[in-house]
Amino acid sequence: MAGLKPNQRGFRMPAEWEPHEATWLAWPHERSDWPGKFAPIPWVYGDIVRRLARVEKVRILAEDAAAEKSARRIFAKCGVEMDAVEFYRHRTNRSWTRDYCPIFVRNPRGQVAITNWIFNGWAKYENWRDDNKIPDYLAKRLKLPHYAPGIVLEGGSIDVNGVGLLLTTEECLLSKTVQIRNPGLSRAGLEQYFADYLGITRTIWLKRGIAGDDTHGHIDDLARFVDENTIVTVTELNKNDANREALEGNLDLLERTGLRIATLPMPAPVYFDGQRLPVSYANFYIANKLVLVPTFNDPMDRVALTKLAALFPSREVVGIHCLDLVLGLGTLHCMTMQQPA
């Protein structure tokens, strides 16, 4: 068995709606991610953990004892069910666990393993080395089999339906000029890694992500699987908006996949200190019995929640106010990573 890739041992990446053992978060501490507006962020986390802890374990990476104490104090005030919360002490650079936590895979016998991809700060930021150590740390702590593909991949750059399909963007993974993840690695080469390590048989490539996304095209602000045969994608009604052309092009590509396509509106653009922020309802997170959806004090919040409630009829769909959180250039999906049951 030595040298076999995960897919040769029956492992695949489960869809997000499949049962979770836990959700991974990292307690926020990087104040430069929320310049001048850090104070509300721990309280946003408190509300999110309160809701998640009702439906599954919440495992939290905390920098040190002081960070854990601060989190516990906020959770107590927020009414979090602490029996479902576990802390793991490890330094992190940021709290966007979607992109540096391991991508978990599972085989038909129910065994779970870790795929440990390289995280390099989205090929943009210089402080990423603590984040990049997390998968190796968790493999040891959780005593799980561990596979290291040896290339850069962030969890937010892909989405899967659990039975062989994967969604991603050319802008993120194939750019040759901006935030280059894996110089010299081709589309076919990436698809082989997806097959070997995540059990993927078909990759759907969209073009560009949304305006304001500093990851350069992550799929989780753009289009997501909601069941094995359905993708929901964001669309822009304003003909003058910077997103209009790209989102129309992606919708055209999706409509040619043979899958069912649903749409979500985009909220009105949000700016802070002159910078456009990546506001998108596609950055929802699917937990056990629950879907958390970012909202932005926008009339389209209600439309997005109603559409997602129809797409997830067996789950409670809850809006989480994210105008403060998105200043860090991410929201609910970016800050969470599921560990399959």
> Strand arrangement, largest sheet?
3-2-1-18
CATH level-four homologous superfamily name: L-arginine/glycine Amidinotransferase, Chain A
CATH class: Alpha Beta
Strand content: 15-25%
Helix content: 10-25%
Describe the protein.
By secondary structure, this protein is an alpha/beta fold. The protein has a single domain, classed as L-arginine/glycine Amidinotransferase, Chain A. Helices cover 24% and strands 23% of the residues. The strands form six sheets. The protein has a four-stranded mixed β-sheet with strand order 3-2-1-18. A three-stranded mixed β-sheet has the order 4-5-6, covered by helices on one side. The longest helix has 14 residues. The protein is globular. The mean pLDDT is 97.
What tags apply to this protein structure?
single chain, 341 residues, alpha/beta, four-stranded mixed β-sheet, three-stranded mixed β-sheet, 9 helices, 18 strands
Architecture blueprint of SSEs:
Layout: E1 20-26, H1 41-52, E2 57-62, H2 65-78, E3 85-89, H3 97-100, E4 103-106, E5 112-115, H4 129-132, H5 134-142, E6 146-147, E7 159-160, E8 165-169, H6 170-173, H7 187-198, E9 202-206, E10 223-227, E11 230-235, H8 244-254, E12 260-265, E13 271-272, E14 275-276, E15 285-287, E16 290-295, H9 300-311, E17 316-321, E18 337-340
Parallel strand pairs: 1-2, 2-3, 5-6, 8-9, 11-12, 16-17
Antiparallel strand pairs: 1-18, 4-5, 7-8, 10-11, 13-14, 15-16
Helix pairs in contact: 1-2
